[in-house]
Amino acid sequence: MKESISLRFLYGTAPGRLALRLLVQPGVSRVAGRFLSSRASAWIVPCYIRRHGIDLNGVEIPAGGFPSFNAFFTRRRRNAFAGAASGSKNPEKSAASSADCLLSPCDGFLTPIPVKSGTVFDIKHTRFSLEDLLQDKALAACFRDGLALVFRLTPANYHHYCYAADGTVLRHKKIAGKLHCVRPIALREIPVFAQNSREYQVMRTKRFGMAVQMEIGALLVGRIRNERLTMETNHVHAREEKGYFEFGGSTILLLLEKDAVRIREELYGHKNADGEIPVRAGEEIADACGAHSRSK
């Protein structure tokens, strides 16, 4: 993946890294967020659409157009999470079978990564401790020899996301941190997943055992909006909207226990040059294995 000149400067040079120390501070992100939510940013929208080739079919567009860049970036798409099963031409049948399948929570690029012994795994040449990621030693132990599914969202992707499975939310945790870009050049230089602000929920799913669904902020993403937390019940459903990101390329991570799921083989045939699998929100990406397939 070709990196921009600005990213190479910020992450690959001494002056750039000094500038980065300022850029990654939450206060800078908040200022950028206020501008992107103001009417003064509306002129960016048509330029952004052209640059990234964004398809607006099915998008809910306000009368008079988007009043700000963030209004566009957090745009809603009709039937956003009704993605058909891989290879299926019957969305209604797909929705009915979702309880037995793990879904992609978002549009983006998927990388499945086995959780290695010692709860340390590699992402794009950088080693990450699962304990540091979760800030919970006991919870990290639950996913030893399990599977991490990393979903990378690009700036052009739809940035609302849904639950990947039916289940019960046991607890929620929010971890403040510095906001770094999640592009590969940043991953080579800084342990991004251990430093970025992030939120996650621990869930007891009906078909896949214990799971964690985590959202990770990136450079200039001042807010992860998990509005689902305001609802009274802690029972959640696959394809139910969980929240959305404000501006930036961001990441969603699913942690699953050992032998919980089997990734569908046909997906591997769609890998891009970086070894990532393009997925759509609501798409069925894995089936339950016997160890966790019974209702809990």
The main pleated sheet reads as: 8 strands, antiparallel
**What is the oligomeric state here?**
single chain
CA-based shape = globular
Alpha-carbon distance between the termini? 42 Å
Helix and strand composition category: alpha+beta
List how many beta strands DSSP finds. 16
Strand order of the largest sheet: 11-7-8-9-13-5-2-15
Low-confidence stretches: 84-96, 122-126
| DSSP helix fraction | 10-25%
Overall mean pLDDT stands at: 78
Radius of gyration: 19 Å
Task: Please describe what this structure looks like.
- This protein has 296 residues and is of the alpha+beta class.
- The chain has a domain at 91-288.
- It is built from ten helices and 16 strands.
- It has helices spanning 5-12, 14-23, 26-36, 44-52, 69-73, 91-97, 130-134, 137-142, 184-189, 192-195; strands spanning 101-103, 108-114, 120-123, 126-129, 147-152, 160-162, 167-175, 198-205, 210-216, 224-225, 235-236, 241-245, 251-256, 261-263, 277-279, 284-288.
- The strands form four sheets. Strands 11-7-8-9-13-5-2-15 form an eight-stranded antiparallel β-sheet, with no helix packed on it. A three-stranded antiparallel β-sheet has the order 1-16-14, with no helix packed on it. A three-stranded antiparallel β-sheet has the order 6-12-10, with no helix packed on it.
- Helix 1 (5-12) packs across helix 2 (14-23).
- The chain is globular, with a radius of gyration of 19 Å.
- It starts with a helix and ends in an 8-residue tail after the last strand.
- The relative contact order is 0.19.
- Mean pLDDT is 78; it is low at 84-96 and 122-126.
